[in-house]
Amino acid sequence: MAASKLTYSKAQCINRLSSTEDALYVLGGRWTIRVMIAVLGGSTRFNELQRTLKNISAKVLSSELKKLELNHLIRREVFADPTPVLVEYFPTEYSESLKDIITALAEWGVHHKVKITTNNWSSKITH
Does the pTM of the predicted model rise above 0.85? Predict the structure, then answer.
């Protein structure tokens, strides 16, 4: 069975490329989507996020959180009452727009992993 072919006009192709570049500018970092998943999953404090996202440095996590905040995907809230000061990160209403994208990406990842680890797939790869 032949796979259906996606075809776009030149203008549609250019528009999709431009839109995809914009999305990847915001979400394309190595840790960006992972940080967003952790925040959407309920991790709210810096150290909690760092434990959830194994192998991310404090400097990189801090940078990712700032970038996500600038893009209105997370909200940083500072609680001055407790000592020391408590900082938490929360998903914004706007970040809800990423849930379907993240779910689709995760599902694709599961299917892809199964596909590339089966003998049927690997026997078709030519070197």
Answer: no
Per-residue pLDDT tens over the stretch 104-114: 999 999 999 99
Q: Distance between CA 35 and CA 95 in Å, rounded?
A: 12
Tokens of 75: 């909200």
64 DSSP assignment? H
CA separation for the pair 90, 44 (Å, rounded) = 6
Distance CA(48)–CA(113), nearest Å, equals 28
Q: Which residues pair with 86 in a beta bridge?
A: 79
- 86/19 Cα distance (integer angstroms): 37
- Note whether 72 and 36 are within 8 A (CB): no
Sequence-distant (6+) residues with CB within 8 A of 115 are 121
